[in-house]
Design goal:
This protein has eight helices and ten strands. By secondary structure, the chain is α/β, with parallel strands linked by helices. Strand 1 and strand 2 (16-26) form a beta hairpin. Bound molecules: adenosine-5'-diphosphate (2 copies). Its main location: membrane. Belongs to the ABC transporter superfamily. This is ABC-type polar amino acid transport system ATPase subunit.
Length: 233
């Protein structure tokens, strides 16, 4: 099990400060939900973890990777880091021209160099796990939003990450469909996957997380037990 340590991250775009000395420790095997108003810096913070964004300063420790400004990140380091960190976005980002199964096979072939047979076996197992075996040969466009998001989760899991990041995973979904996605995420949490979830849905955050972190104005303003924080007057 792998944790995440973010120490003193700062980031600005021109004159706009997006992260102002933000630190967070995510315990191995726990789920942290990150909430707060739009523009608070949540997405940017999340994206720093797998280096979709580089902070201007601060240290990122994920697994055995240490990223800090001034220290070059080689293509190899980056590939290793991205392999251990799975990411799921609001907009699914599936390959529309590939079947559901091929969506899950492709990264295993490309990133892990797995044989066709092994990749197919794993893809079938993952589809079964997210309850979508019957969709294997469909195209993603023929699947509902909730189904597409579960496919995106299966695809991320195919690389056997030790950490999963979710950026607004249910925001594009109707509430009842969001529950299907929540169920899959809960199962992952029960298996000890370390997860960090950005969401603006309070109920979802409360139901999924061990630790709730509230961000506003480029800072973390509160963190702790979700039930304690949400019962605040
Ligand atoms: P949140 O996820 O909390 O809504 P974001 O991290 O997406 O917040 O954005 C924080 C702020 O940073 C916003 O004001 C946003 O417009 C700005 N921002 C994000 N990405 C960029 C970028 N690539 N260039 C300029 N400003 C950006
Ligand atoms: P989300 O709400 O899904 O995080 P955003 O609308 O915040 O999406 O951002 C989508 C993309 O646009 C991101 O890559 C972000 O970095 C970029 N972005 C956001 N705000 C700005 C901005 N003010 N200027 C330039 N790029 C931005």
């Amino acid at each position: 099990r792998v944790g995440i340590d973010l120490e003193h991250l700062s980031k600005r775009y021109g004159d706009t400060v997006v992260l102002d000395d933000v630190s967070l420790h995510v315990e191995p095997g726990t789920v942290t939900a990150l909430i707060g108003p739009s523009g608070a810096g949540k997405s940017t913070f999340l994206r720093c973890i797998n280096l979709l964004e580089r902070p201007d300063s601060g240290v990122i420790r994920v697994d055995r990777h240490v990223i800090e400004p001034g220290r070059a990140v080689t293509a190899r380091d980056l590939a290793a880091l991205r392999r251990s960190v799975g990411m799921v976005f609001q907009s699914f980002n599936l390959f529309p021209h590939l079947s559901v199964l091929e969506n899950i096979v492709f990264p295993q072939r490309k990133v892990l160099g797995r044989s066709k047979e092994e990749a197919h076996d794993r893809a079938h197992a993952l589809l079964s796990r997210v309850g979508l075996s019957d969709k294997a040969n469909e195209h993603p466009g023929r699947c509902s939003g909730g189904q597409q998001q579960r496919i995106a989760i299966a695809r991320a899991l195919a690389l056997e990450p030790s950490i999963m990041l979710f950026d607004e995973p249910t925001s594009a979904l109707d509430p009842e469909v969001g529950l299907e996605v929540l169920a899959v995420m809960r199962e992952l949490a029960d298996e000890g996957m370390t997860m960090l979830v950005v969401t603006h849905e309070m109920h979802f955050a409360r139901d999924v997380s061990d630790t709730l972190v509230v961000m506003a104005d480029s800072h973390i303003i509160e963190q702790g037990d979700p039930r304690a924080i949400m019962s605040d007057p």
